[in-house]
Write a structure and sequence with these properties.
This protein has about 200 residues and is an alpha/beta fold. The chain has helices spanning about 5-10, 25-35, 60-70, 75-80, 90-95, 185-200, and strands at about 15-20, 40, 55, 85-90, 105-110, 120-125, 135-140, 145, 150-155, 160-165, 170. A hairpin with an 8-residue loop joins strand 6 and strand 7. The termini are close together. The structure holds glutamine.
């Protein structure tokens, strides 16, 4: 029925999936709910049905890779992206989306890039968001070692990309779900709303 998409576009809550194989998916869910989204945990391919956007959380990228393969999620995740729906990857989620994993954003992530000494830290980070720098929590974080011409680097630490966007894909090397500053999630939700309007 043609009235369904326009009703969805005009006000119904958006629905965001959070990949829930391993990692801190519950913290993402809490932020997304606080911002007014409906949240669905994603564990198998059919969980991707009827979502407006998807978050890949931080955690342990080797474990998440094995889970994605075990649950046969590789092609469904690529198809989700190809359908134009926004994806947001944080920390291990950034790694999962890179050229050497799902190949959904044209970057190469360097794992545990900040080294053994400075594994975890919090730093003010200028990301061009209104309201000034965000308090970014880095936990054994990757950085973006290489990226293609279509990738916009949104923030850097020491000359290394730690936040980037390519089309509908947003990645950050830190953990915005662990601070009380919701602006990065809001940036993602804005792209989810725009993509849904464009598809309606
Ligand atoms: N060091 C982890 C990995 O390489 C990522 C850390 C995180 O997600 N906080 O998988």
């Amino acid at each position: 029925m043609s009235s369904v998409p326009s009703r969805r576009a005009s006000g119904e809550k958006i629905t965001v999936g959070v990949l829930a194989l391993q990692g801190d998916f519950e913290a993402h869910g809490a932020v997304l709910k606080r911002l007014g989204a409906r949240v669905h945990e994603v564990r198998i391919p059919s969980d991707l049905d009827r979502l407006d956007g998807l978050v890949l959380p931080g955690g342990e990228s080797t474990t998440i890779t094995l889970g994605i393969e075990r649950e046969q999620l590789v092609e469904p995740l690529r198809a989700f992206h190809s359908s134009g729906k926004p994806i947001f990857g944080t920390c291990a989620g950034l790694i999962m989306l890179d050229r050497e994993h799902l190949g959904i954003i044209d970057i190469r992530a360097e794992r545990n890039a900040f080294g053994r000494q400075v594994r975890s830290f919090e730093a003010p980070l200028e990301m061009g968001l209104s309201g000034g720098p965000i308090a970014a929590v880095f936990i054994r974080a990757p950085w973006i070692a290489e990226h293609g011409a279509g990738v916009e680097i949104l923030a850097e630490v020491g000359g290394h990309g730690v936040a980037a966007r390519e089309g509908t894909v947003l990645v950050v090397a830190f953990h915005p779900e662990l601070s009380s500053d919701d602006r990065v999630h809001e940036l993602f939700l804005q792209s989810v709303r725009e993509a849904r309007l464009a598809a309606a």
